[in-house]
Amino acid sequence: MAVLVGKKAPHFSAQAVVNGNQFAENFSLDQYLGKKDVILFFYPKDFTFVCPTELHAFQNKLAEFESRNVAVVGVSTDTEQSHFGWLQVDKANGGIKGITYPLVADTNKTIAANYDVLAGDMFYNEEGLMVAEGELIAYRGLFLIDKEGVVRHQLVNDLPLGRNVDEAIRMVDALQFFEANGEVCPANWSKGKDGMQANHAATAEYLAQN
């Protein structure tokens, strides 16, 4: 698994559905450079089971991300038509109607591959035929990308394991606290708590108090 933290987020341009009902061509994260931090998250499949719980969880917290000047973008290897179709299905029926943040269609698998969250593998067998081993879908990857386009946090869950959206918000808060104050964030830090200077004396004081 590649570690992208500290590196430029891989560029992509792809089809997407935005605002819950509009197709967008050549969607990329370039539009946020210099303007917004980004939470980019991958999910395995449309019309499945854990995935809609995550997508709605991000939507339920979307105002909190927006208040922090953070864009939320979802990606799966489904087509934009599949995304659109799922967006027409009510939440009560397992659909994602009401999702307004962009859903990117990684139909050629390159986005997931470049972020190293693509499950499965493709290779040529002894007969020279291309074969696939495992499903070529995305793991539950999540990347916090800053305004300069640099990955500052990443998390990858296996397919059955849903993510905690509050933890994604906590990481946004930690990054923005560091950027604003120059102080680092100790274990279990949350918004409203004190940070600490990056030195041994501050660490010793924190450990003595906790």
Your description of this structure?
With 210 residues, the protein is α+β, with helices and mostly antiparallel strands. It has a single domain (14-163), classed as Glutaredoxin (3-Layer(aba) Sandwich). It contains 6 helices and 9 strands. It has helices spanning 50-60, 62-67, 80-87, 110-114, 165-181, 200-209, and strands at 14-18, 22-27, 37-42, 70-76, 103-105, 121-124, 130-133, 140-145, 151-157. It has a 7-stranded mixed sheet. It is globular, with a radius of gyration of 19 Å. The two termini are 34 Å apart.
Share of helical residues: 25-40%
Q: Tell me about the biggest sheet?
A: 7 strands, mixed
SS summary, helix count: 6
CATH topology: Glutaredoxin
Low-confidence runs of at least 5 consecutive residues: none
Number of strands: 9
What is the CATH level 1 assignment? Alpha Beta
Structural class: alpha+beta
CATH architecture descriptor text: 3-Layer(aba) Sandwich
Q: How would you classify the quaternary structure?
A: single chain
SSE pattern: EEEHHEHEHEEEEHH
Radius of gyration: 19 Å
Number of structural units classed as domains: 1
Write the layout of secondary structure elements.
Elements (H helix, E strand, L loop, with lengths): L13 E5 L3 E6 L9 E6 L7 H11 L1 H6 L2 E7 L3 H8 L15 E3 L4 H5 L6 E4 L5 E4 L6 E6 L5 E7 L7 H17 L18 H10 L1
Parallel strand pairs: 3-4, 4-5
Antiparallel strand pairs: 1-2, 1-5, 3-8, 6-7, 8-9
Summarize the structure.
The protein is of the alpha+beta class and 210 residues long.
Keywords:
210 residues; alpha+beta; Glutaredoxin; two-stranded antiparallel ribbon; 6 helices; 9 strands; globular
